[in-house]
Amino acid sequence: QVELVQSGAALKKPGASVRVSCKASGYTITSHGITWVRQAPGQGLEWMGWISPYNGDTKFAQKYQGRVTLTTDTSTNTVYMEVRSLRSDDTAVYFCARSVGGSCDYWGQGTLVTVSS
Amino acid sequence: EIVMTQSPATLSVSPGERATLSCRASQNIDYDLAWYQQKPGQAPRRLIYGASTRATGIPARFSGSGSGTEFTLTISSLQSEDFAVYYCQQYKKWPLYSFGQGTKVEI
């Protein structure tokens, strides 16, 4: 069965970076894109970006361009998201999700990233 | 950027009643729309894609309709487990596959 398992919660200081992992199982990771979505406390879903594990192609919402990096390690079926120059308003739950035709059919459990001094 | 607007923000219904949720796109997205359900502390779950195709394992009481800029999610007879927040998402136009702000369905 398809499963996406994300890394655990992180506490970071403003200005630091965080890397969140998303390990896929139950399917060939290069066959589908991975989307990243975040959700600030009590807020809605926000689409951040997408990566093709097949060729490394990426797409980002403009507000994340240049501050977020997505990478894939096909040897471990893992996708990584790095966010740099963290601010307090980056405090959120970050989700990875398998993208099929644009919509997301399987989701990771979410990773809480807290940015606080 | 395509802006997705959902209404109402909150929908109060009783178990067994019908619920109708709306989603409007700021420009034409054809049928490139998905609906998700999210319960507290959980990841979203895809209900509908292609505006009207139910995802695997989704009960028949959930149905989606619409095209272009106007879309509807209908829950024909609300069950206790359906009380949640529902989001629409367009995937017509890169690079931002935007979500609506959500509709909370409450008792």
Structural class call of chain B reads mainly beta
Q: Quaternary status of these chains?
A: heterodimer
Classify the helix fraction of chain B into a percent range. under 10%
Cα shape of chain A: globular
Proportion of strand residues of chain A: over 45%
Strand content of chain B: over 45%
User: Mean pLDDT across all residues of chain A, rounded?
Assistant: 96
What does the radius of gyration of chain B come to?
Answer: 13 Å
Model regions low in confidence, pLDDT < 50 over at least 5 residues of chain B: none
Instruction: Please bin the fraction of helical residues of chain A.
Output: under 10%
- Which protein chains are joined by the largest interface, and how many residues does each one contribute? A-B, 23 and 27 residues
Question: What would you note in describing this structure?
Answer:
- The complex is a heterodimer of chains A (117) and B (107).
- Chain A is mostly beta strands and 117 residues long.
- Chain A has strands spanning 3-6, 10-12, 18-25, 33-39, 46-51, 58-60, 68-73, 78-83, 92-100, 103-107, 111-115.
- In chain A, a hairpin with a 6-residue loop joins strand 4 and strand 5 (46-51).
- With 107 residues, chain B is mainly β.
- Helices cover 0% and strands 46% of the residues of chain B.
- In chain B, a hairpin with a 2-residue loop joins strand 7 (62-67) and strand 8 (70-75).
- The A-B interface holds A 35, 37, 44-47, 49-50, 59-62, 95, 97, 101-105, 107-110 and B 1, 32, 34, 36, 38, 43-46, 49-50, 55-56, 85, 87, 89, 91-92, 94-102.
